[in-house]
Design a protein that fits this description.
Blueprint (H helix, E strand, L loop, with lengths): L1 E5 L2 E3 L9 H5 L2 E9 L2 E2 L2 H14 L8 H14 L4 E9 L17 E9 L10 E5 L7 H4 L9 H12 L4 E5 L5 E4 L3 E6 L2 E4 L10 H13 L3 E3 L12 E6 L3 E8 L2 E2 L5 H15 L2
Parallel strand pairs: 7-8, 7-14, 11-12
Antiparallel strand pairs: 1-2, 1-6, 3-4, 3-5, 5-6, 8-9, 10-11, 10-13, 13-14, 14-15
Length: 281
């Protein structure tokens, strides 16, 4: 089931101009939120990141948070009861003619998409199989991955290439050979009882679920750190997992030829703690 809210108009169909810059150039920003018991989780955090991404693109967001929240709530109210994937998109809008530089009169547009998902989050104990992508992660100096923009071709190509080789997803390295993240998820490993995840400086999206897990690790007094990781570090990992707003937490069972215990005890403990946080949100 899909439902759209385009500039305040809720419908089962929506369309934009072929001159829209989000369509032509990926000149847009977006956020993905999931509901839990019908309530969007960490919506304000996502909106803060949306605005940071827009600022990075020199893009104005003319609606305040209260307006966007109202539109999300209106769209959810128009949908059948259930759990939803919510995508909030702000595109720079349509120019009058094709050109790389935005026209001064171009007006942003707000799109909210709902897609039904499973009624309860599921911990996938089978895990996923990853490969180290040959394609490099876009560098911070070129297009900072911390900005969640509509330009996702780097990730799409890495995912397609991984799937062509029989894997579920890819881990992307930066130009220095350091692990950054998977195509739509942050990555974590556990070594010698310490939970480790790459720091923002290597070129990652500042994941909302990642931030929540860091808070949970602090509260549970589980040893953890942000640290630069390389593929060689995977051989000494006792377990590994991915995190994202929709997947929440996904165990990793294989990276190329390296097999990992799946699911690990830390992954299971963090899954339970994450659901408790979401329950009380």
């Amino acid at each position: 089931m899909l439902l759209f809210n385009l500039d305040g108009v809720i419908s089962t169909e929506a369309s934009i101009s072929v001159l829209d810059r989000g369509f032509l150039y990926g000149d847009s920003v977006y956020e993905v939120i999931r509901t839990y018991h019908g309530v969007p989780f960490a919506l304000l955090d996502h909106l803060a990141r949306l605005r940071a991404s827009a600022a990075y693109l020199y893009m104005a967001v003319p609606w305040d948070d209260a307006h966007i929240i109202r539109e999300v709530e209106r769209t959810l109210a128009a949908a059948p009861k259930g759990e939803y994937y919510i995508r909030i998109v702000v595109t720079r809008g349509a120019d009058q003619r094709i050109g790389l530089c935005p026209e001064p009169t171009t007006q942003p547009r707000l799109l909210i998409v709902l897609m039904a998902i499973a009624p309860e989050p599921h911990f996938n104990s089978a895990g996923v199989r990853l490969t180290i992508a040959q394609r490099q992660r876009t560098s911070i100096e070129a297009l900072d991955p911390a900005a969640k923009t509509g330009n996702y071709l780097n990730n799409i190509l890495a995912l397609l290439e991984a799937q062509q080789h029989g894997f579920d997803d890819a881990l992307l390295l930066n130009g220095a050979g350091q692990i950054t993240e998977a195509t739509t998820s942050n990555v974590w490993i556990v070594r010698a009882g310490v939970v480790e995840t790459p720091p923002p400086s290597v070129g990652i999206l500042h994941g909302i679920t990642r931030a929540t897990l860091l808070e949970i690790l602090q509260q549970l007094e589980v040893p953890h750190r942000e640290v630069i990781l390389t593929p060689a570090d995977l051989a000494s990992a006792s377990e590994a997992f991915l995190s994202s707003s929709v997947r929440l937490l996904m165990p990793i069972r294989q990276v190329d030829e390296t097999l990992l215990p799946c699911p690990g005890s830390v992954s299971q403990r963090l899954w339970d703690a994450l659901l408790e946080v979401m329950e009380n949100h």
